[in-house]
Specification:
With 301 residues, the chain is an alpha/beta fold. The protein is built from nine helices and 13 strands. It has helices at residues 3-16, 19-26, 30-44, 60-87, 100-117, 169-175, 224-232, 242-250, 280-292; strands at residues 49-51, 56-58, 92-98, 121-127, 141-145, 154-167, 189-192, 200-204, 210-214, 219-221, 237-241, 255-256, 264-272.
Length: 301
């Protein structure tokens, strides 16, 4: 006999308190339920049920076996449900954590296309600039920029962005243009307040050497667009990803502070909980983003 069916028959008898009700629950005959339970007891070499004319109850061994059997049966049911959901149309609430700058600049403009393509999905996009714990905080996925921390999360690269130091032509006309990294110590720098590195800029020199510039910022804010606005206004030099400054650079509102330095390329990733199967709604959104950003990158932003 099928081991899982034997287990289900036994657990159902315990749940229903007898063979008759268990047979009704399973949609089979009472004798069939009895045969499954007897076969299970014979295979295990133990009596799992106390049987009287009035009631049926699990033995001590039977109660211990029931707890484990119910977990196995629940897992089997969830596995069946997962396969069904994987074959069904993506639906349900999709909760996403996104860095504020990326969400406002790149994600918000394309969300409408996604929702029209998948009308059974609803999106809750949370914009913040902190590292969120996906599982414990109830997020289905997140978009992260830069080097990923070691974790059990799965990740898929969507595109790249470039980070540069930029300032307005007016600023450089007034204060001069830095010729090398050390010259930044004499300039007004605009900082992100939400970065763990605070007022430290990690920069790659033309030689490939990794350098750090540490100086108090003339202006410190927790929003990249505000830093860009400050740079355009001539308040100082900002260190920003290309998706923020690209349009302003095309218009001549900002320029490279030190063009000779190598570009710092940052990956943009979709990260999501581990597991052999990905929820259809998560898979649909990641595939949509990968297709949307397929032809975009540092040269596009």
């Amino acid at each position: 006999m099928d081991r899982l069916t034997e287990m289900e028959a036994f657990a159902t008898v315990v749940d229903q308190g007898g063979f008759t009700d268990a047979a009704k629950k399973m949609g089979i005959s009472k004798s069939a339920v009895s045969k499954h339970v007897s076969a299970l007891e014979a295979r295990l070499g133990a009596r799992l049920l106390n049987r009287t004319t009035r009631r049926v109850s699990p033995t001590e061994i039977g109660l211990a076996y029931y707890d484990r059997a119910r977990r196995v049966l629940n897992d089997a049911g969830e596995a069946d449900a997962l396969v069904t959901s994987m074959q069904s149309a993506p639906s349900g609430l999709l909760r996403i954590s996104v860095a504020t700058d990326f969400g406002v600049s790149l994600l918000s403009p394309v969300l409408g296309d996604f929702l029209q393509a998948f009308p059974e999905i609803t999106v809750n996009m949370v914009l913040n600039n902190r590292y969120v714990e996906l599982i414990s905080e109830g997020f289905d996925m997140a978009i992260r920029i830069g080097e990923l921390e070691d974790s059990t999360l799965r990740a898929r690269k969507l595109t790249d962005t470039v980070r540069r130091m930029i300032g307005s032509p007016d600023y450089f006309e007034r204060y001069g243009r830095p010729q090398k990294i050390d010259d930044l110590n004499d300039h007004k720098l605009l900082h992100y307040s939400n970065q763990s590195s605070a007022n430290v800029w990690r920069i790659t020199a033309a030689s490939g050497e990794k350098r750090q510039v540490r100086t108090a910022g003339w202006l410190t804010v927790n929003d990249g667009q505000s830093l860009l606005n400050a740079a355009v206004s001539g308040l100082g030099i900002a260190y920003l990803p290309s998706f923020l400054y690209a349009d302003a650079m095309r218009k001549g509102l900002v320029v490279d502070a030190i063009p000779e330095l190598p570009q710092e390329v940052l990956g943009i990733y979709a990260v999501y909980p581990p597991g052999r199967f990905t929820q259809p709604k998560v898979r649909a959104f990641i595939d949509f983003l990968a297709e949307t950003f397929a032809d975009k990158g540092p040269d596009h932003w």
